[in-house]
Amino acid sequence: MTADRRLWFRNRPDCLSDPVCEGVCFDPATGETHFLGDLPALLLSVIDSEPVSVDRLTQRLTGADAIADDDRKKMIGALLFLEAAELVESRFE
Amino acid sequence: MNLLNALLRDPQVVRNWQAAEWNQLLPLARSARLLGRCLSLFEQHDLVDAVPPRIVDQLRGALIKTRFLHVQALRELRHVVRVLDRAAIESAALKGVAYLAADLPPRGWRSLSDIDLLVREVDIARAESALQRAGWVPNGEFDDYDQHYYREWMHEIPPLRHSKREIEVDLHHNLAPPVSRIVIDADRLWHAARTVSDGHGFAIKVLAPADMLLHNALHLFMNDELRGGLRDVVDFRDLYEHFRAEDSDFDHTLVARAQALGCERPLYYAVTTGQRLAGLQPSPTLREAVAHAGPPAPVAALMAWLIEHALAPGRLGLRRTRVANGLLFIRSHWVRMPPRMLLRHLGHKLLLRRKPPAPEPDLPG
Amino acid sequence: MRSSDSAFLDTLGVFYPGRAPQTPTCVYDYDIRVYRPFSMRRWVRPQIQFEIDHLHPFEPHPAENAFPMYEWGLNWCIASSAHRYLMLHAGSVAFGDRAMILPGTPGSGKSTLSAALVLSGARLLSDEFGLVRPERGDLLPMPRGIPLKNASIEAIREFRTDAPLGPTYPKTRKGRVSHVRPDDTSLAQQDRPAVPRWLIFPKYVAGVAETLEPLDKTDAFRQLAFNSFNYRLLGDAAFNAVGAIIRNVDCYTFRFSRLERAVEHLTALVAETETPGT
After folding, report:
1. Phi, psi for C108 (deg, rounded to 5)
2. Exposure check for chain A: N or C terminus, fewer CB within 10 A?
3. What distance in Å separates residue A90's CA from the closest CA in chain B?
C-alpha cells in the first residue's frame, strides 16, 4: 500500500472543536465543518506541521512500536479519509 | 458622479445624509460590489455611528459573504498551485486572489468569485490537462466558436472549475490578448514577479507591485464587463496608496514600468478615472507622467463621458448607462482585436447567441 | 415597497396592517417595486414584474399571483443578503421569551405546525427564516404571512374554522397556496427577541401516532447546520452559534399526523420545561 510509505502533516491553523458534540470540528483553512469518528478525530489531534510516518503516529497514539496489521489498515484508512477531507496532507518520504 | 463616488472621494459627506441618500447608496454599492469597501471606509474614518444600523447590517452581511469567498479562493489557489507544482509548471496569482495571498489592502473588503493565474504560454496546454486529470472540468458549455475565441484570440483558456468546489479558475498566459494592440512581453513579468506566503506558510508567486497596478489598468480598460469596473478603480487606488506608502520611489518605478511595457495609455485612464470617481490622489510625478499619455482632447472627453456613465450612473437602470456600456463594449473589443476580427466576433455574438434567461434559484416560500 | 397594482396592495394591507409601504424618512434594505409591465400582453394575460433595486432577477409571473410572488421575492432578498444573521431554514415560535425551533425540509410540515401553534397562542417568530444573531444566539422575530400549500390549507381550516386565511392562489409555482395572517400580538412584539429552548425536527407522516423522541446532540448539530441557508458562509461564527444553540436546547424528533394532538404534545412539553429561575 503506497499510503504506508507516506509522511503525514497538517500545516494550517488548528481546527475548532465543539465542547459538547464529540468529533464535530470546524476547519478554518477550508471553512468546512466535519463530523469525525473516534479514530480520525484522535489521529487529527496528534498530527502537526512536522511530517511523520504511520509508525510514528502509532507510537504517539498507543505508545507501542508496532500494532496488528488490521489496526494498521484502519489507521491508514482514517488517514486517507482525513486527507480527502483536506484536514491533513501527505508526501512521500 | 453619484453618491457612491462622492462617498469614495470624501467619506465625511455622509454626516449630512438623510434616509433618501442612504436609500440611493445601497443599490449603487451593491451593484458595484463595493458594500464591503463602504464599511471599511466608515471604519477607517470613524463614521460607523453616523450610519443607520440597517445599512450597517447590510454592509456587515456583505462582508461576511466576502470573507467566506476569501477562504474558498485561497483554498482553491492552494489546490491549483499544488497540482501545477507537481507538473513542474510555474504559476503566479493575479488580481483578487493575488491581493489576498499577498495580504494587500483590498483583502479587507474585496469580493471575488474566481481566481486568475498566470502560466507561461508554453505551459498552458499542459497546465490545462494536468488540472483536468486532477478533477477540474470546463465551467460551462463552450462551443467550438467559444473555444477558438478563448484560445486563439484571447490570452486564456476557457474557465475551469473543480467538480467538488465552487470557485472558477482562469488560466492566462499574458495580461493582454495576443491579438490586441498592446503587446506585453510576459518574460519581463515573470522576471519581476516575487514570492509571498499566504499566511499559512504556503508559497505563491505574485506580480511585482507596479505590474499589479498596470494589470489592473489593462483589465479595466480592455475588459468587456464594465459593470464591475468601479471596483477595479477602487482597487487601483487602494493598491497605489499602499505601494506608495511602502516605497517612496514607487511613482517613478510605476511610470518607468508603464513605458517599458507599453501601458502608458491604460495607466492614463486608470489614473484619471480614479481621480474623478474614486478619490485617487496621484502624486505630481504620476499626474505629470500620465498627462502626456492621453488620447487627443475630443477622444479624451468622449471617453471620460462614457466611463462616467458606465461606472458612475446617477442611479441604476438608466438608458444612458446602457448606451455607454454598449459603446465601451465595442471599444474594449476594438482595442484588443484587429477590426476584421472584431466584426466577425461581434456579428457572431449579436446574431447567433441569445442566451436564455438564467433559471430561477430554488427557494422556499 | 411600491406598487401600482391595487389588488396586490389590498392583499398586502390585510397581512401587514398599518405598515405603510414607505415614507421618505425611513431607511430601507431593498427598493422593491411590484408592477404590471407595459406590453400587449397586458390586455390578454396580465403579468406582474418584481423589481429589486431597478433590476429584474426573475421572469414576470401571472398578475393574479402578485402576493405569493412578493413574499417569495422578499425571501430571495433576505436569503441572498442577510448574512449578518445565521438563517435557519426553520419555523420558529416563542412561548414568552423562550423559542421553539422547528427545522425542516419542504413537506416536513413545519409551516403547518408553526401555523397551528400560533393559532393556539404561541408567538410567531417566523415560519421560514429563523434569524439568529450569532454573537448572542437569540432569534429575531420576522412575522409574515405563513404560506400553506395544497392539503395544508384544509388541515388548518379544519384545525380552526376561524383561521385568518388570505385569498387562495390556485396556480403558483408551488401549487395551491394560501397564507395565514400573523396575529396582532406577534406583529406588535416583532422587536422582542427570544432565546432557543427547544429544537424539534418535525416530520409529517400520514396516520402516525404522535411521538416525540429525544435526539442525540451530535445528530442535532449536523441537522441544524444542514437546515440553514448560510451555515457554510458564516464559517466559525455559524459553527459557534449552532454549538451554543445545541448546548442550550432540548432536542427531539417529532412524528405527527393530527394537528390537534401535535399541538397538545408540544404545549405539554413547554409546560413541563422549567422556566429559568423557578
Report:
1. -75, -15
2. C
3. 12
Quick check: is B30 in a domain?
Answer: yes
Whether residue B365 lies inside any domain: the answer is no
Looking at the structure of chain A, the number of domains it has is 1
Distance from the Cα of residue C80 to its chain's centroid: 16
pLDDT at residue B286 tops 90: yes
> Residue C146 and residue C149: Cα distance in Å, rounded?
10
B119-123 contacts at long range (C-beta below 8 A, 24 or more positions apart): B119/B84, B119/B89, B119/B90, B119/B91, B119/B92, B119/B171, B119/B172, B119/B173, B120/B89, B120/B90, B120/B173, B120/B186, B120/B190, B121/B173, B121/B174, B121/B186, B123/B89, B123/B90, B123/B173
Residue A19 touches partner B, C-beta closer than 8 Å: no
- Convert the pLDDT of each residue in B139-192 to its tens digit: 877 777 677 666 666 667 788 999 889 899 999 998 876 556 677 889 999 999
CA–CA distance, B269 with B280 (Å, rounded to integer): 12
**DSSP letter for each residue of C91-132:** EEEEETTEEEEEE--TTSSHHHHHHHHHHTTPEEEESSEEEE
Count up the domains in chain B and report the number: 1
Domains in chain C: boundaries: 1-81, 85-278
Say if B364 falls within a structural domain: no
Interface predicted TM-score of the whole assembly (ipTM), two decimals:
0.89
β-pairing, B114-119 vs B168-172, is parallel
Rounded to whole angstroms, the Cα distance separating B15 from B27 reads 19
Residues 6+ apart with CB under 8 A from B134: B83
| Separation of CA A68 from chain center | 18
Which among C222, C231, C243 is the nearest to A20, CB-wise? C243
Mutate to test the interface with C, among A12, A15, A33 (most CBs of C within 10 A): A33
Tell me the shortest Cα–Cα distance from B197 to chain A, in angstroms.
12
3-state SS, residue C199 = strand
CA-wise closest residue to C30 among C77, C70, C64: C77
Domain residue limits at B29: 3-352
Domain range for residue A59?
A: 2-92
**CATH code of the domain in which B83 resides:** 3.30.460.40
Q: Does A30 sit within 8 Å of B71, measured CB to CB? A: yes
Residue with cell 457572431: B348
What CA–CA distance (Å, rounded) separates B28 from B9? 15
Q: pLDDT in tens for each of the 93 residues of chain A? A: 566 789 999 988 889 999 999 899 999 999 999 999 999 999 999 998 889 998 888 888 888 877 888 888 899 999 999 999 999 998 887
Distance, in Å, from the CA atom of C33 to the CA atom of C50, rounded to the nearest integer, reads: 6
Cα separation of the two ends of chain A: 14
Contact B20 C24 (CB under 8 A): yes
CB proximity B86 to A under 8 Å: no
**H/E element holding B196?**
strand B194-197
